[in-house]
Structure formats: C-alpha cells, structure tokens
UniProtKB/TrEMBL annotation:
PANTHER family per record: 4-HYDROXY-3-METHYLBUT-2-EN-1-YL DIPHOSPHATE SYNTHASE, 4-HYDROXY-3-METHYLBUT-2-EN-1-YL DIPHOSPHATE SYNTHASE (FERREDOXIN), CHLOROPLASTIC
SUPFAM superfamilies named among the record's database cross-references: Nitrite and sulphite reductase 4Fe-4S domain-like (SSF56014)
Protein's job: Converts 2C-methyl-D-erythritol 2,4-cyclodiphosphate (ME-2,4cPP) into 1-hydroxy-2-methyl-2-(E)-butenyl 4-diphosphate.
Single annotated GO MF: iron ion binding
Listed name of the protein: 4-hydroxy-3-methylbut-2-en-1-yl diphosphate synthase (flavodoxin)
The species this protein was found in: Candidatus Arcanibacter lacustris
Residues that bind [4Fe-4S] cluster: C298, C301, C344, E351
C-alpha cells in the first residue's frame, strides 16, 4: 500500500506549478543541447514537454547561454508552452545572473550546487550573490548537492573529525553526512540572507541505490523543505531505468519526494524523452499518478501464437501515445484506463476481466477467436484476420462513451 502520509514538505511555487505539500509529485527533465543554440534547445524543450515533462532544466554555463535563455523562453511562451524552465548554474552563476538580468528574470527557478558555487574565500560571497538575485526577482532555488562535486573542504573537515572518534564511521557514512550537511547548511544560509523557506528545494544526489535511500530518509527526517528526487548518473538503458525505479520507488513508497527525474544516459539514436516516460511510468505503476492508459500484457510462452499478441500490444501502445494529448483534452479521466492484451486462455480471460478493457487472444492451441471484456463482463468475441483492428475500434468507442462529454 502506498504511504498516503507524504514527507511534510513546504509548498513551493515554480512558474505555474506548485510542488511539495499535498501537491502532485512532478516529473522533471533536462535538456542536453547547447543552450546557446536557441532553436535546438527550444525544439528539445517542446519534445520533452509534449512527452509529459512538467519542469525542464537547461544548462546556463556561459555568456552565450545566458544571452540565449530569455529568447528561448519567449519563444516557448509564444507557442503556448508554459512549462517552468530552470537554469542550471555551476562555477559562474553569480556572474551570469548579475551581468544578464534578462536571463535572471526569465527563468522560473535557479539550481545552485554548493560544491562548486565558489571555492575558498569566494564561496560564501558568490553563494550570497546568487541568493540575492533569487530574492530580487522572486525566484525559488534548488540547492542541489551531488556527491560527484561535493565541497572538498567540507569532506576534509568531516573526515578529520571522524578520524578522531573512538569508533569512527566508514568513509561512505561520512560522505553521506557531508551531503546532508552541505544541503542543510546552505539552505539555512539562504534563509539568513532573506530567501523564504518556501522558496527552497533540496536535493542530495548519489549514483548508488542504497546510498540514495539512506541519504533521503535522513534528509527528510531533518527538514521540511521540498525535495527533488533522483539517482544521479543512473546509466544507460534498462540498467538506468531499473536502478532509478528501485531507488525512487522505495522512497516514494515512504512518502519522500516532491519532484523526480530519471537521469538516463540516452542510447545512441534514441530520444531524450525516454527519461520523461520512465518517470511517468514509475509514478503510474505505483498508483501515485495517472498520465496515460497502461497496458497489461503477458510475456508469452509456448502456448502463444508467434508474435501476434506482442505486435498488438505494441500497436496499442503506439496508438495511445499518439492519442494521449487528444484524449487528455477531449476525454478527461481516460489516462487512468487499464488495458489488457493477453496471449492465450490460461490467464487471458481472467486478466482481461480485471482490466477496464481487455482482449484474450487465441493461443497456438486454441480456436481462432478472441473474447473482449469490458469492465469485467464479456462484450464480444472477435474472429477473423483483423482482430487487432476490430479491438482498436472497440477501444476508441469505449473511451468516447465512458469519458466523452
């Protein structure tokens, strides 16, 4: 059962979105284009938004990127895309935000990494400048700590203190503590400078599942800031998705996390939008939010007929993706439909009855007929060479009848 008691976090307004508190858990993504390339970055944000991303982060790493940012956002708003855009700053954010006020004003949120906001005597002053810009333009800030770029002075200090203990902690435990301390101390400093606590989001990202779980459990117990959740550098393909789902799934089940990102390494030739789909499917399969109709399908065995049921499941999935935006506007509620596409009579009829609408295809040893079930009751038995096309028409009629005005 999902933990209905969410981590008691403050509600934060980011553009036209509210995160934290009792608001829905939001799906976030990040572009990988050169931000100075206005058209490419605009196009990718459009793609990510259309895929379902509700917040998009862009890199603002140099003057050309800072100059391009307001034009990208203006172009997005011009075509009706209101998705909040977050600026990701490292090393020189204090300079870019002050030198390019149009960039600072146009962004919906700033992301600051305490580990590289500045070094030595400059660290405090450069952090202060960024927070002051956030206050000036009324922007929320994500203080995002990452163990790949953790403040080395802080690590050294904590390691030295740990070595003096009678029973010292492991190096990994010290690193975890350093992550949390960096985030909380930075947040406290931001508040001292005048940034309200409900304008602060925290994240402490690591790349190992068990480390992420422990760090966020500790962070949630020590603060009520909104939390951005994600396994950093999760990896490519199935490894990245499985690791992210394992880590975030545990924490989401415990009510921890207000925004999430699945940080996948894109496979060559694949779309950046895969990370968005992975996050949406995680939330939906856990029963936390609905984004699009979900398909339940069997893995296949010696009883199923070659690849027919697999092709039908794929075709229905492709059809749903194409229809998703239309259904969302025309048929509110249809995103929660559960569709079953089963390959034979062993579990097919039963699974179909449990779904809103389902089809049990004939296996290799059964008669060439396919019963269709709607809301637990047998609706019709399909026969012939176009069973798939017949079922698609029934599906469209079901959606229109149940969710149409």
């Amino acid at each position: 059962m999902i933990n209905n008691k969410r981590h008691h976090s403050l509600s934060v307004k980011i553009g036209n979105k509210l995160i934290g508190g009792n608001n829905p858990i939001i799906v976030q993504s990040m572009t990988d284009t050169d931000t100075a390339n206005i058209e490419a970055t605009f196009r990718q944000i459009v793609d990510l938004t259309e895929a379902g991303s509700e917040i998009v982060r862009i890199t603002v790493n140099d003057e050309d990127a800072a100059k391009a940012t307001p034009y990208i956002i203006e172009k997005l708003r011009g075509v009706g895309i209101t998705t909040p855009i977050v600026g990701d700053f490292h090393y020189n954010g204090h300079t870019l935000l002050t030198k390019y006020p149009d960039c600072a004003k146009s962004l919906d949120k700033y992301r600051i990494n305490p580990g590289n906001v500045g070094f030595g005597s400059k660290q405090d002053s450069q952090f202060q400048i960024m927070i002051e810009q956030a206050i000036k333009y009324d922007k929320p800030v994500r203080i995002g700590v990452n163990w790949g770029s953790l403040d080395q002075a802080l690590i050294t200090k904590l390691m030295d203190e740990n070595n003096k203990k009678t029973v010292p902690l492991s190096d990994k435990q010290v690193l975890r503590d350093a992550l949390i301390q960096s985030a909380l101390v930075s947040a406290k400093r931001a508040e001292e400078l005048g940034l309200a606590s409900d304008r602060i989001v925290l994240s402490c990202k690591v790349s190992q599942v068990q480390d992420l779980v422990v760090v966020y459990q500790d962070l949630a117990s020590k603060s009520n800031y909104a939390l951005h959740l994600g396994l950093t550098e999760a990896g490519m393909g199935s490894k990245g998705m499985i690791a992210s789902a394992a880590a975030m799934g545990i924490l989401l089940q415990q009510g921890i996390g207000d925004t999430i990102r699945t940080s996948l390494t894109p496979e060559p030739g694949t779309s950046r939008t895969k990370e968005v789909v992975a996050s949406m499917e995680l939330l939906q399969t856990m029963g936390i939010r609905n984004f699009m109709p979900m398909i339940t399908s069997c893995p296949g065995c010696g009883r199923t007929t070659s690849s027919y049921f697999r092709e039908l499941a794929q075709n229905i999935g492709d059809y749903i993706i194409k229809q998703r935006a239309i259904w969302k506007e025309k048929y509110p509620g249809a995103e929660g439909i559960n569709i079953a596409v089963m390959g034979c009579i062993v579990n097919g009829p039963g699974e179909s009855k449990h779904s809103d609408i389902g089809i049990s295809l004939p296996g290799s040893g059964e008669s060439p007929s396919a019963p269709v079930y709607i809301e637990g009751k047998k609706f019709v038995t399909l026969k012939g060479d176009d069973i798939g096309a017949q079922f698609m028409r029934i599906l469209e009629e079901y959606v229109a009848n149940k969710y149409g005005a």
